[in-house]
Specification:
The strands form two sheets. This protein has a two-stranded antiparallel ribbon with strand order 1-4. Strands 2-3 form a two-stranded antiparallel ribbon. The protein is extended. It contains four helices and four strands. The termini are far apart. Pfam families: p450. Keywords: Heme, Iron, Metal-binding, Monooxygenase, Oxidoreductase. Its cofactor is heme.
Length: about 120
């Protein structure tokens, strides 16, 4: 693509921008998990639309554990508890502003209260 990258350079890939590319995703700024039902995307580094675990030699060694255990733990938590937001967050809504650092995190962490079913 007509880029000249000097030998020995370190190239940092901005995955946040890739995940919000309007050429790949319709309405990339919206949370629409259903979009993955119609699109076959490999999260193991084969497709570059989503790279949650990295790719190539630098892929996360904990990926197999995460791919198996996160759905199990999440399903158990959703099955055993009813979840609610704190009263203040119910009234004012969730603050979705971001705080930039080495990673991108929410400026105000999400707080959810489990209520045993």
């Amino acid at each position: 693509m007509d880029y000249t990258i000097p030998e020995g350079s370190r190239v940092l890939i901005n995955i946040w921008v890739i995940g919000r590319d309007a050429n790949i995703w319709s309405e990339p700024e919206k949370f629409i998990p259903e979009r993955f039902l119609v699109k076959t995307v490999d999260v193991k580094g084969g497709d570059f639309e989503v790279i949650p675990f990295g790719a190539g030699r630098r892929i996360c060694p904990g990926m197999p554990l995460a791919v198996r255990m996160v759905p199990l733990v999440l399903g158990s938590l959703l099955n055993q508890f009813k979840w609610r937001l704190p009263d203040e967050m119910e009234r004012n809504g969730d603050d979705m502003s971001e705080k930039f650092g080495v990673t991108l995190v929410k400026a105000v962490p999400l707080c959810a209260i489990p209520v045993h079913v």
